[in-house]
Amino acid sequence: MSGLTPNDPNYNPIAELLREVADAAAAPAPPINFIDSFSFGKMVIQGKEYSSDLVILPDPDPAISGQEYKVLAKWWRPKGHEVTASDVAAALGAHVKLLIIGTGEKNRVRVRSDATALIKRAGIELIAVPTPEAVKIFNERAGGVRTAAGFHLTC
User: Fold this and answer.
1) Whole-Å CA distances, 82 to 108, 142, 151
2) Whose CA is closest to 144, among 60, 31, 50, 33?
3) Is the N end or the C end of the chain the one with fewer CB atoms within 10 Å?
4) Three-state secondary-structure class, residue 32
5) pLDDT tens profile 45-101
6) Backbone phi, then psi, for 52, in 5-degree steps?
7) What average pLDDT does range 94-117 have in this prediction?
8) Confidence (pLDDT) at 117
């Protein structure tokens, strides 16, 4: 706000409105806190406990589901501790801008170069970090940018 009041001769309601819109757009999105907690081998998401690797994708129709994101349990990767291009296909199909990979508590999972190249070609930001950090990043950023994530829950 400019500090001017409607009684001030220099007050311009359109300029004031535009300033308010610009300020709101510049403010970071609030955290969504979709993921309640993570501990080795267990993730709790909106009160439901998961004990296998999982993927979180934007819900294609949140107006119907009432949820901004959906969880796909049992994320199985043919190469185990390697994320390949085929492992990130669902994220690419969801037209996300950010892909977060939780690489496990001990950072054992690696994102292969074929996956990294595909993600980069699609114009998607990739963050691959240990799962505890990935959970924090997801909760902080998923409210402001279309995000997908894959989480390795153990090593």
Assistant:
1) 9, 24, 12
2) 31
3) N
4) coil
5) 999 999 999 999 998 877 776 778 999 999 999 899 999 999 999 888 899 999 999
6) -130, 160
7) 96
8) 96
Identify the CATH class of 31-151: alpha beta
Alpha-carbon Rg of the chain, whole angstroms? Answer: 20
Enumerate long-range contacts of 94-97, CB under 8 Å, 24 or more apart: 94/57, 94/58, 94/60, 94/146, 94/148, 95/146, 96/57, 96/58, 96/124, 96/146, 96/147, 96/148, 97/123, 97/124, 97/125, 97/145, 97/146, 97/147
Model confidence pTM above 0.85: no
CA distance 45 to 42: 10
Q: Where are the domains of the chain?
A: 1-28, 31-151
- Phi/psi of residue 54, each to 5°? -150, 165
- Please state, in angstroms and rounded to a whole number, the distance separating the CA atoms of residues 103 and 48: 21
Token representation of residue 153: 């829950």
User: CA–CA separation, 19 vs 137, rounded Å?
Assistant: 29
